[in-house]
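Renewal narrative, Specific Aim 1. Our central claim is that a sequence can be written position by position from structural information alone. The example that follows is taken directly from our test logs and has not been curated for this report. It begins with the structure tokens describing the chain, in the order in which they were read.
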């Protein structure tokens, strides 16, 4: 087996997953190397990154990975070179806007704690809405599956006392707009199938923000309606003909 890359909440969870996926011979074992530590802060979490290899028991590769670290080695491996701080630009923000400056600092501290190669491209302020544009090689970790991590980070920031009275929107490369277009296309396509088959269709579970977009799109189509079923996080929408069970 060539080296495979997996993302998981922990090495223990990954080992359990691998047991279900791979059957090892008696003389084989799994070598897992942590490439990026998992990160969790309140309800925001990010999976760790691991490389996985199947090797022969007692092989040099297994010995190297499982070899105890000597004290002399600890001194060397624990010394990390400080990464050069990327210059961050905050545009369209007044120097007097202390709240925008504070938001900039809080997000930078969060990204540093998560050890993510992400920086703030710009912060713009319109009325009481603060829009933050992020860039970086690891932006996918902040976006998360279907943008859930992005929304969680927004909620986390707006739950802080200093930002309770403002709206914070975080985006990267117009992800939210692209995702909204995908959802509206899904709603239109599903609506056509419901009308054609005269049968209701149940969509996959999605966050409340995404269900709202689907609902808005279906409300424009005469003769159709949506109903929500289930409980979070598996709550989903059913698109159906009006007045039909």
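The sequence written for that structure reads:
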């Amino acid at each position: 087996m060539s080296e495979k890359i997996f993302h998981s909440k922990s090495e223990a969870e990954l080992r359990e997953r691998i047991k279900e996926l791979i059957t090892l011979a008696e003389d084989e074992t799994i070598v897992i190397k942590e490439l990026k530590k998992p990160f969790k802060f309140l309800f925001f979490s990010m999976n760790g990154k691991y490389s996985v290899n199947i090797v022969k028991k007692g092989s040099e590769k297994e010995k190297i990975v499982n070899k105890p670290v000597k004290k002399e080695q600890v001194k060397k491996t624990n010394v990390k070179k400080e990464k050069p701080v990327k210059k961050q630009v905050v545009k369209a923000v007044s120097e007097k806007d202390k709240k925008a400056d504070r938001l900039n600092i809080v997000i930078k501290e969060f990204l540093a704690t998560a050890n993510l190669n992400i920086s703030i491209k710009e912060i713009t302020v319109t009325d009481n809405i603060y829009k933050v544009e992020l860039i970086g090689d690891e932006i996918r970790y902040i976006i998360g599956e279907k943008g859930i991590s992005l929304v969680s980070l927004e909620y986390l920031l707006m739950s802080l006392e200093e930002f309770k009275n403002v709206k914070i929107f975080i985006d990267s490369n117009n992800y939210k707009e692209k995702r909204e277009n995908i959802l509206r296309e899904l709603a239109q396509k599903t609506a056509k199938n419901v009308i054609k088959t005269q049968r209701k269709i149940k969509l996959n579970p999605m966050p409340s923000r995404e269900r709202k977009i689907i609902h808005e799109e279906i409300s424009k189509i005469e003769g159709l309606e949506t109903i929500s079923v289930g409980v979070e996080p598996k709550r989903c929408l059913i698109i159906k003909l009006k007045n039909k069970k």
